[in-house]
Amino acid sequence: VPWLSWCLASWLLRPQSNCIKTSKYNIVTFLPVNLFEQFQEVANTYFLFLLILQLIPQISSLSWFTTIVPLVLVLTITAVKDATDDYFRHKSDNQVNNRQSQVLISGALRQEQWMNVRVGDIIKLENNQFVAADLLLLSSSEPHGLCYIETAELDGETNMKVRQAIPVTSELGDTSKLALFDGEVICEPPNNKLDKFGGTLYWKENKYPLSNQNMLLRGCVLRNTEWCFGLVIFRPDQIQADEHRPIFGFLVCMGVILAIGNAIWEHEVGVCFQIYLPWDEGVHSAFFSGFLSFWSYIIILNTVVPISLYVSVEVIRLGHSYFINWDKKMYCAKRRTPAEARTTTLNEELGQVEYIFSDKTGTLTQNIMVFSKCSVNGHSYGDVQDVLGHKAELGERPEPVDFSFNPLADPRFQFWDPSLLEAVKLGDPHVHEFFRLLSLCHTVMSEEKSEGELFYKAQSPDEGALVTAARNFGFVFRSRTPKTITVHELGRAITYQLLAILDFNNIRKRMSVIGEVLGARLGPGIRLYCKGADTILLERLHPTNQDLTNVTTDHLNEYAGEGLRTLVLAYKDLEESYYEDWSERLHRASGAPEAREDRLARLYDEVEHDMMLLGATAIEDKLQQGVPETIAILTLANIKIWVLTGDKQETAVNIGYSCKMLTDDMTEVFVITGHTVLEVREELRKAREKMMDASRSMGNGFSYQEKLSSTKLTSVLEAIAGEYALVINGHSLAHALEADMEVEFLETACACKAVICCRVTPLQKAQVVELVKKYKKAVTLAIGDGANDVSMIKTAHIGVGISGQEGIQAVLASDYSFSQFKFLQRLLLVHGRWSYLRMCKFLCYFFYKNFAFTMVHFWFGFFCGFSAQTVYDQYFITLYNIVYTSLPVLAMGVFDQDVPEQRSMEYPKLYEPGQLNLLFNKREFFICIAQGIYTSVLMFFIPYGVFADATRDDGAQLADYQSFAVTVATSLVIVVSVQIGLDTGFWTAINHFFIWGSLAAYFAILFAMHSDGLFQMFPNQFRFVGNAQNTLAQPTVWLTIALTTVVCVMPVVAFRFLKLDLKPELSDTVRYTQLVRKKQKTQHRCMRRVGRVGSRRSGYAFSHQEGFGELIMSGKNMRLSSLALSGFAARPSASWIETLRKKKGGEGSTACSPSGAADKTLKV
Amino acid sequence: MKNKKSFAPQEAEARPSRCPDNSAFKQQRLPAWKPQLTIATVLSTFFLTGAFCLSVGICLILSANSVREIQINYSDKCSDCSKLRENSYNWNIECLCSVDFKLKEDMLGDVFMYYGLQNFYQNHRRYVISRSDAQLLGRDVNVQRSYCAPFTTYNNGTPMAPCGAIANSMFNDTIDLFYNFNSSVIQVPLLKTGNSWWTDKNVKFRNPQSHNLSSAFAGTARPPYWQKPVYLLDEEDERNNGYINDDFIIWMRVSAFATFRNLYRRISRKRHFADGLPAGNYTFHISYNFPVTKFKGKKYVILSTMVWSGGSNPFLGIAYVVCGAAATLTGFIITAIHLKLRKKKTYFQK
């Protein structure tokens, strides 16, 4: 490699290759590495430690196999799971790594697999290729080393961006020159402002500063550029880690009590008993005996938190994950992608989500702009179709309009109102003019690969939609040169002379073209066509338009109410003499050395006046299916939704309205756009004051709060009356996230019902999530589709990726993936809720059964001299958790349902117990432990009472140790089986099979273990020979078991019923009471019917960028072949590049977007 | 039409659908029984359980009351012997003791004779494991490798047979019962076999195979506390000697608690005692060997009759009655609470 790239920040971490490696093992390393990792888990080490303890004869109170059997089982199951996980990771790694790319090696281009590309290589990218590593742009096929990229994956913006190589390298156009390139790049580590890149290129003893303008970041797509060369550089990523630590305090506590008991017993009683039972060798004092007994009891009592807990939890999670994968209702037929749970450990957290952070583009919206409606000369078209696309599936729509008359029509364009086409065909001059405007007034480039096959390269999708609409209605924009536009008007080719483009910018919010029909001056002469934001344009109309304006305004309001983006179209005829004069002045102004911009703006302003209204267009930024409904339901479920988007504020707010996050019923929408720390702080303070004022004026008596410091704001702000929303800009957010303001920001934001953060960088997205995670102690979920969401998805507790689209980075980083935002409600309200419920029920029961099981040893300790004698047979202890009681509780943990799935959607409030963690908190935990201990007391003392001094019906002793063990074990198995029967609310055939099967298995194994055959083979291991048939033949034993069961279970039944009767949970109510169900249902419907009286949101092509008009007029972006045809005069060139770069540079310094000052203009 | 039909599945085969199966299992729509705690089921459960428990409890109490039992603490009564045994040097000295008692009523039916021990921790972990079941099965095993320590071998390497703390501490008093009938003393015939479980006697305990018992135990020595070797436990009955001696088997079946009773003998229902023990004066003749005072233990001799639920144990009956009463009471309480609440509910609905 002829040159070197070196990153200061990452020289230690520098990878040798660009190979993406998410897999952890290979065949050789699997066993050692996996075992090492598994023993890093505290739990596994703990059990290994227990195993070692059991090998010490003085301590061993249980045979070694009681621990090793479950431990080996656990390790095996985990290893198998890890192995399969890793196998899939290997597969997806290979897919990524085997992508081809062209690498320049010793002066020649070679096809290399992506994994073999190294930092420092020069690679060649071709049009429409994904940029798969961070590249420094060296040169490109376009003039001046320019290239176009689409960054939708990174920041959600769909417009194309210009990147330019630094001048010294832009000349290195061919491989021979590039091969000689030997520079050194030093780059900064990534900082808060990820869109800023700082670095320096050292080459030929010169220093060249590098900026973001020279970089092609991983995740972009190369567009409209034949090829470019880039240098692979490396920037480190962040790494995250998590923790897991169980607590065994209880165990130690019990152990200590019993150890003290043992020391006292040995001191008082054991000493005298030494004639029959001398102390072990090496034990010389009661104290030491107590010490040993502590460890013995630790071994016995470890079953309160058995290894099988971890396995069972894994199995249940795996089951829930499979249910997610299998869910047909989360399968998207269009994209052929089912939902996928990529991690299995988070399912129950899905039932506890309080904050959702959502990306916009690709997640909430489809990133498709659709020409949906228009108003021409006071007549509104397009009304037949329904507002929201989702209704299309209901089959109510008529056939779409047939555009077959037009051979150049775009087959993907659909329109449902035939009257508009009829108007075109009847020759309505207004309609013709309307579409003529759309076909002329834009900055779209066309490409005609073969005759009649047109491709439009629109700078913004809005514009593309408008030009496509005109195309289908017979006004086909065919081609352009710097000075002409060719349009096929209803089959007739007409070439217009393009006299001037009055370009768009954020202040003007409009663009115009001035043109005339080329050649014969038959047409209407010189005409100005203008389209722009209604607020701006309606003021610039000729007074004679008043009536039409009123009608159009009504239409605009109607469109805005449906969440459509509107533009107003107008034209103006210009006197030729006036135009010549104006054009002369324009020419002078554009050549002016100073205040060029201002002078141009004034000239533009002058000509765009007294225009005639043509009509208005309404473009639908197509939401994903079911987004407003999903958001409404999630909001009802008390989940707060924050939208974090790289988009501009206008776009984000517009989408906020169309997906019903923002409504006009809201008391106020605060917009934070401050550029300095002070401004932001002031704006936040004002917002809080307003909210508090409002609640004070509501008469809630909050006046005393003024004295509270800002840190105590939490309580105040949580009681806010009224609905508020907060919109904050990326540059303000950078300040708001600083350490001294973050709490203030968080409290303000959390008091609002909806929060929209726009123009945020990927890192800021992660920071916002981190902030909420840090202070709110709530479960957060991030959902997104692009590479720009990866950091946020990784930071949030739960990351959800939208799958089935081009980029896969978000999906790869996510925990769950599916292809539609609307599936989120099912994931959370059905799967998440059930997972949480099941896991809670499982844990409660599991702790109960193990406390009931284990604590019997504790009570027995007081009767056996605290000698760590177990109550049960060691095989019972080994098998209790893995055979006798594991499957019924697993079946409950996997299959249980409290209410049917459709009910969880109908009553989103059912989700709340999860958020408040009502089902398994400390209190519930202690209740189940208490129940377990209560059971263990009865389990020990009832048989004790019966057995002490009792005899069998044949006169022999009844109270022998083995009979006692069998009796207690049998009653325990029966009691916990009855209890699981009570806990199981959803008895499928599998539950029946497992519960009855477990009982049957218990008795089968019991009799097998106590059989003659096993004893003959291993007399020292199977000492209970003959016990089962002798003990279980006694009526007394069965009466004892029955009594124990009744006494253990009846109080539970009584408490459960009384709780149900006196204080039913919503789920109980939903389950039992038909009446409440109906009531809620009507409420629910009311919610959905909330109509919107829309406030008008209009803006010109929200994602549009200034400078393209000039670009077109200069002809720089046109291929030489097409340029050669048109004799265009040289104009003061390169100025458009200057404009573009100035724009970029200026905004870079404030670390924000090109929208700059325009952000303030939007007032909601 | 036919072509179309055949075409569709082919296409589906060519591109395997990733669409999940529409099976009830995968879609979590398995048919299921959803039990609910309703007032009817809960109340019926409580009242039925209450009735069941009460009736069982009364039956148990009635039958337990028909049991006759007499229990005599002879470690107190034979205090001289108790003292003598406290010093282990006197192990060789025989100590006889007789205890008189009077039966006021007949003990009808089968009468069982038990020895009872108090404060003897047969359930201590180290005690419980101190045995070799392989050895007791008549196998030639190396007791050094069993849990029998420290009662495995003597210093000269001779293994103990049987080994372990349980065997070593075997109860070795002999108790005989005499009936004072019209100034003549009749020894009550006692059965010393058939007292242990069939499985213990025939499966769990086996003597080593040899032409006679003493040669079978050649090369082994008796446990230190035993007065005679294992093959002399019952010289009269070959089938009650060695490891399969009933007294030994019963002792080896360790008790779950520190206070326990083991079946010692059954009254042979012959002649005078065909119906059980008639009322009158009796005497126990006890050869006192087993020291208990050292660990503050007590020894009992117990005579008892038997019913279907075993011997005299009032606990189970009382527990059932209490449980039945509680269940019934809870049933009433639940009824009361529910009725009160229902009024509230109707008010709420308005």
TrEMBL record, chain A:
The P-type ATPase C-terminal domain, residue ranges: 811-1064
Enzyme active site: D359 (4-aspartylphosphate intermediate)
Compartment(s) where it occurs, according to its Swiss-Prot or TrEMBL record: Endomembrane system; Membrane
TM annotation in the entry: 247-265, 285-311, 842-863, 875-895, 925-944, 964-982, 994-1017, 1037-1058
Example of a GO cellular component annotation carried by this entry: plasma membrane
Membrane-protein topology: Multi-pass membrane protein
Region (Disordered): 1145-1164
Catalytic activity: ATP + H2O + phospholipidSide 1 = ADP + phosphate + phospholipidSide 2
GO molecular function: ATP binding; ATP hydrolysis activity; magnesium ion binding; phosphatidylcholine flippase activity
Signal peptide stretch: 1-19
The keyword Membrane is annotated on this UniProt entry: yes
Primary subcellular site in the record, as a coarse category: membrane
Span of domain P-type ATPase N-terminal: 17-68
Protein name, as recorded: Phospholipid-transporting ATPase
Native source organism of the sequence: Anser brachyrhynchus (Pink-footed goose)
TrEMBL record, chain B:
Pfam families per the UniProt record, alphabetical: CDC50
Keyword Cytoplasm listed: no
GO cellular component: endoplasmic reticulum; Golgi apparatus; plasma membrane
A biological process term (GO) from this entry: phospholipid translocation
Organism domain of life: Eukaryota
KW Glycoprotein (keyword) present: yes
Location in or out of the cell: Membrane
Broad class of where this protein is predominantly found: membrane
Segments for region (Disordered): 1-23
PANTHER family attached to this UniProt entry: CELL CYCLE CONTROL PROTEIN 50, CELL CYCLE CONTROL PROTEIN 50C
Family from the record: Belongs to the CDC50/LEM3 family.
Protein name as it appears in the record: Cell cycle control protein
The species this protein was found in: Anser brachyrhynchus (Pink-footed goose)
